Amino acid sequence: METTARGVSGRTLRPRGVRLTPSAATIAEQEFDMAWISVRDALAPSKTPVGTEVTIKGWVRTRRDSKAEGGLSFVHIHDGTCFDPIQAVCKGDLRNYGSEVAKLTTHCAVEVDGAIVQNPKGGNEVAAKAVRVIGWVEDPDHYPIQPKPHSFEYLREQMHLRVRTNTFGAVARVRHTLSMAMHRFFDQHGFFYVHTPIITASDCEGAGQMFRVSTLDMCNLPRRAGDEGSLKTHGDKLPGPAGTGAHPPHGAAIDFSKDFFGKEAHLTVSGQLNVETYCMALSRVYTFGPTFRAENSNTSRHLAEFWMIEPEIAFASLIDDARLAEDFIKFMIQTVLAERADDMKFFDERIEKGLLARLKDVMDKPFRHLPYTEAIKVLEQAIAKGQKFEYPVKWGTDLQSEHEKYLTEQHFKQPVVLMNYPKQIKAFYMRENDPGTDGAPGATVAAMDVLVPAVGEIIGGSQREERLDRLDGRIDEMGLPKREYWWYRDLRRYGTVPHAGFGLGFERAMMFLTGMQNVRDVIPFPRAPGQAEF
RNA sequence: UCCUCCAUAGCUCAAUGGUAGAGCGACCGGCUGUUAACCGGUAGGUUCUAGGUUCGAGUCCUAGUGGGGGAGCCA
After folding, report:
1. CB A141 within 8 A of CB A131
2. Is the minimum distance from the CB of A486 to strand B below 7 Å?
3. d(CA A1, CA A99)
4. Which listed CATH number (1.10.10.10, 3.50.50.60, 3.30.930.10, 3.40.50.12780) goes with A167-210+265-521?
5. From residues 137-176 of A, which are strand B contacts by CB within 7 A?
């Protein structure tokens, strides 16, 4: 079919206004495709006035037919550049009207030439002069995506196609905008972007189960010399085929000196320890990258692979850290409201009623700061007034989901920054507070969690322990291998300064900003236990 | 990992242990500058898998697989 000549030629690369550089497109190319514009631009009267000759390229969303005027079809076309599709008005006198245009179904790929006209009800549309079908949808009866609401559960099984729906298109655009906004925020505030490693050869990050990285042959593992046949299991963590008889009995420790890195290696669970090293030279730094947790957790808030933003600031206290977190969250809200108004309007109308009001409220009010010790008192008072919790409230234990929800959703009805947690429930690197801080009955550390309504913990951070003797004390207390931390400890030996930072779950921020309720629906290809099909 | 609910047409869901149904979508036709279009018709099923109880199982029992929600862990 002659219609595919442009589509398969590989010459028409991008709409006008999206060229990489003047030299990236040849003169011939520019002339060849002068009229191609994005749906986003075509819909904007200021950019594309009535009468402009344009070419639209995209996918059919819906088609509606009329027999008036010898045939008339209204074809909605989207190309992902904005929330709304553009309507192409196709009349019966088109050469391929009966043979092709009237047979278009959802997600057929098309090119439409025509003039911009005004829709009787307002807004730009295209009066089609030519319609070229680039790619048909075979067997439309069984095409998984139909012009009707689908459940998110169903769309998770059609993950390769779900981005074509309005919801997931909006999620994808907001996710992009948020990524860009995040880099802009830190850049404007003097932070340097540090690429911390994905593979870590130290097992000392201490933030949960890790995925192993290895090039060893899992069916023929090297065993440590002299250990053959012994019953020692120490260090042998591979989920091997125990008891099959086809392999050495478990006991001979695996010889990781034969592995790629000469020692055990894993996927990172946090870039924090690495980024601290750069913080001690560049003052203000951040990482943004994938993070991996091999926890067998199956909830609407957890993924095995997720993206985390981790800023780290030198010469800073926990209060500075909390202020940064608040400024950052408010900047994110402000940016998506300003730059993705169309998508955010959709989320407000169809995903979470009142979303925009909720976000504006968060933006306008200062965050509530609350010491952990005070939070316990608030919860105890609530219990005294009849509030029922499944788990007991007791100083020294971590707050449960139900407790956090009570604080943010019922008691304060806004984001809450909880600070100064009991030392025994927090990580070794968090700075020990002076005794009696906040009137706490026990030792506390300068930790903070930012809790938001509907999502829960969105940020976890702390001021870091900069005093070597205290840090060593914590490492010993927790029974951690001090040798493994030699380079982290060095930071405290050579020019140590107070510093702080936090980790923000990017997908949790997405949930908070879009009102989407399952973390698997705000990342393109979610990885969770038993789920890596796509 | 624990608790709990679910699995029937392309999708969303009905069907007292007794003939497998509807809406939407697809296809055909009618009407209309339509826009969640509307009206009429047609096609579409190994009821998740494997066993079991029963004269008879979509329905009851057992096991498995897949999925949802909640909890823990956390971001």
Report:
1. no
2. no
3. 12
4. 3.30.930.10
5. 140-142, 144, 146-148, 150-151, 153-154, 156-157
pLDDT digits (tens, 9 = 90+) for A304-360: 999 999 999 999 999 999 999 999 999 999 999 999 999 999 999 889 988 999 999
* C-beta separation of A89 from A126 below 8 A: yes
The reply to whether A458 Cβ lies less than 7 angstroms from strand B is yes
Q: Residue A340: phi, psi to the nearest 5?
A: -130, 45
- Would you say A521 and A168 are in contact if contact means Cβ atoms under 8 Å apart? yes
Strand ranges (DSSP E) for A302-455? 305-314, 368-371, 416-422, 444-452
Cα–Cα distance, A96 to A397 (Å, whole number): 71
| CB neighbour list of residue A108: distance below 8 Å, 6 or more residues apart | A59, A60, A133, A135, A136, A137
pLDDT tens, residue by residue, A511-529: 999 999 999 999 999 998 8
Nucleotide B44's nearest residue (CA vs C1') is A141
Q: Are A283 and A314 in contact (CB under 8 A)?
A: yes
CB A270 within 8 A of CB A307: no
Q: Which helix (H) or strand (E) holds A322?
A: helix A318-339
Non-local (6+) Cβ contacts of A473 within 8 A are: none
Judge whether residue A117 contacts strand B, using its CB and a 7 Å cut-off.
yes
Q: CB–CB of A407/A379 below 8 Å?
A: yes
Find out whether A145 and A135 touch, Cβ atoms under 8 Å: no
The counts of H helices and E strands in chain A are 14, 16
Beta-carbon neighbour count of residue A179 at 10 Å?
A: 14
pLDDT digits (tens, 9 = 90+) for A91-144: 998 999 988 999 999 999 999 999 999 998 889 999 999 999 999 998 888 888
Q: What's the pLDDT at A16?
A: 53
Residue A131 · residue A7 · CB < 8 Å? no
Please tell me the CATH superfamily of domain A2-143, with its number: Nucleic acid-binding proteins (2.40.50.140)
- Asked whether this complex has an ipTM greater than 0.90, the answer is no
Chain-wide mean pLDDT for chain A? 86
Distance of CA A339 to the CA centre of its chain: 18
Nearest alpha-carbon partner for A322 in A396, A394, A415, A248: A415
Q: In chain A, where are the structural domains located?
A: 2-143, 167-210+265-521
